[in-house]
Amino acid sequence: MITFTKAQLASLLATGVDFLVTFVLLRWVGVPPVAASARVTFYGVTGTLCGGFTYFMISRNWVFNAQEKKWMAQVNRYVLVWIGNLVLNASGLYLLTRYTGIQPMPAKVITATLVAVFYNYPLQKRFVFK
After folding, report:
1. Closest CA to 125 of 2, 1, 3, 5
2. Given its phi and psi angles, is residue 35 left (phi above 0), alpha (psi -120 to 50 degrees) or beta?
3. What is the distance between the alpha carbons of residues 72 and 2, in angstroms, rounded to a whole number?
4. What is the Cβ-side half-sphere exposure of residue 53, based on CA atoms within 13 angstroms?
């Protein structure tokens, strides 16, 4: 249970980085009110990249205490899982903003939550940092 709790804390921090980057890009870079879905998706992907890097570093060093294991093998497995994460997050954000009319940030919350619960944690625990 401790590992799960630590993973959730790491995920929250990484999600904070992800959402902060997305928010800054949406608000400060200047997406028009009726933004093209591709631009919103690009900003979401950029946030996801930053959050992914944050999560890997925290998980490797604190959550799963896997520093003694081979770095490159972990990176390779993480990248495989993370590509799936990126595709799922970008697709979910695109589909929700394009076809439901949900605004980008709530759509990102919905997508990120579903991907975290049903994809990320199980694969990080059983595959990447095993």
Report:
1. 3
2. beta
3. 26
4. 8
Is pLDDT above 80 for 38? Answer: no
| Token code pair at residue 59 | 């998980």
Q: Which amino acid appears at position 40 of this protein?
A: V
Q: For residue 46, give the nearest of 26, 66, 28, 32 by alpha carbon.
A: 26
Q: pTM score, two decimals?
A: 0.71
Please write the tens of the pLDDT for every residue from 68-107: 778 899 999 999 998 998 899 889 999 999 999 899 889 9
SS3 7: helix
The span from the CA of 42 to the CA of 90, in Å, is 8
The span from the first CA to the last CA of the chain, in angstroms, equals: 16
Q: Would you say how long the chain is, in residues?
A: 130
